[in-house]
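In the previous chapter we treated chains in isolation. Here, by contrast, the input contains two separate entities that must be folded as one system, with a combined length of 587 residues.
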Amino acid sequence: MRLNVRFAGAGGQGVILSSVLLAKAYGLGEDMNISQTQSYGPEARGGACKAEVVISDEYIDYMKVDDVDVFIAYNQTGYDKYCSDLETKDMVLINSTLVTTNNPDHYHIPGTKIAEEMGKPQVVNMVMLGALTKLLPRLHYDKVMDAIWEDFPASLAVSNMEAFDKGYRFMEEQLLQKQSAS
Amino acid sequence: MEPQQREPLPKSGRKTILQGNEACARAAVYAGCRFFAGYPITPSTEIIEVMSSEMVNAGGTFIQMEDEIASACAIVGARWGGKRSMTATSGPGFTLMQETIGFAAVTETPVVIVNVQRGGPSTGQPTMSSQQDIYQVRYGSHGDYEMIALAPSSVQEMYDFTIRAFELSEKFRTPVVLLADEIVGHMREKVIVYDGERQIRGGHRNYVVSPQDDFFTGSNSLVEGQFHDDMGRRIGHLADKSGSFLASLESKIQNHIDEISDVDTFFMEDADIAILAYGSVARPALQAVRSAKGIREEAGAKGRFVGNLRKVLPWKKPDVNPYSHLNVGMIKVNSVWPFPDKEIQRLAKNCKYVFVPEMNVGKYVREVDRCLKHSKVISLRKLGGDLHTPTEILAAIAKEVEQHE
């Protein structure tokens, strides 16, 4: 199994952090091989930002994503830049507060809205990571939670874990609705 | 060739996920580095960041200097005073360090310098990768001197090669450069790390031109940038003595090239096309070889991603793919300098073509071309800071081979 995941958004949205946590959850929690790479501009905030995670139960030779399987767009610029690479089989998650698209196959998560409702707009990346965790194969809720717990100081971990949970639950509900509709 | 005599790494290690730069810093602490001076520069800043806290924890010294010139001078001075020392920088800072690198070479001071390459010249591309410093690392300072440089291509190699850099620098009493690049420096992978401190032995007297027994004891030692005798006394005005000093500086590295050189091979037994790569480009190159052969990546990875994979892996019936007619193998050069001439000649003696993918205008390829008289050596260069993709490499090889047959 080789899973190629690409995150795109603006610098400062937590794009790279969410990819690192995904890598840690898969790598240490699920004991898979991972490789996480990133590219960003010289700015501290703003500017296009991309992060990639390759997950495999085999050796990873080429550590970048050559054929995207899962794509997560945090903002419109990121979506527009990479949506041309997508195939219909690919799984696409968008932060629907900031990304507008009329593709019904995409998973729409109002990440920024959920985060703002919590009073912490900066946890949007955890909401998105939560939704993503629900959808990915061979990845458990608690492994990602462990990764978040270990990555943050205790004072910040709680709100981030809460946001992660909100994203996860949101996607769970979406899937149930989809199931009952079909 | 004799097997390389190395102290094996301990069996027990901790598995964790680290960025290449973090792995480098932790390896330095494990290798006994207790003095770090540096000036932050993208993409090597994480090394400095981790070192600033690790040095405090390990009871060492961390100084953020005013610039890279001072950083290089500080680590040379710290080594004279008895502390194992390191600095880290990127291309622009590495240029500033060149004078001191030459000084460290002539005073035979064992220091480790990490160059996490970015695009240049000048400020160039702060956040993008390159392999453009491959010649600067060898020939950057003035005068004749030998340089040892190691090029990692995974996070585990970043960790292991940092340790190796300290070992080589202590053994041969010479500056050693860890020539990483932005991709390896910023990539996160699983890595096995060790706790405690590694015992690294100092050089045998035979490896050193002027042993100066009091060299690592601080102010009493006579250290001299001019050519000097075994006690540190000036001989720069004596042509015959200076000549033999310079020759010994060269031979202490060149005569031990078998011990220093580190070259991995993949599927080279019957290959008539070889890809020769170093640093992060080795990763897509290896993927290219495997996909041409229709071999999947090996399952159950343990430790360093390189190794004698063909011994473990049963040869599967190759899948038919557009490149399965190419009989490719790969040579991965880990010790890029001194250039392992004999080793590469031996490995590539049956190769009709040797392709050298590089993230620069084609530099190392000249060295390979000089060394291999009987193969057609072709550069696969890529500029702009992006890594080659495996398909790009295979397509270029297929096109070239087709043209000649």
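The radius of gyration of chain A is 15 Å. Residues 2-181 of chain A form a domain with the Pyruvate-ferredoxin Oxidoreductase; domain 3 fold (CATH 3.40.920.10). Compare these points with the single-chain example from earlier in the chapter.
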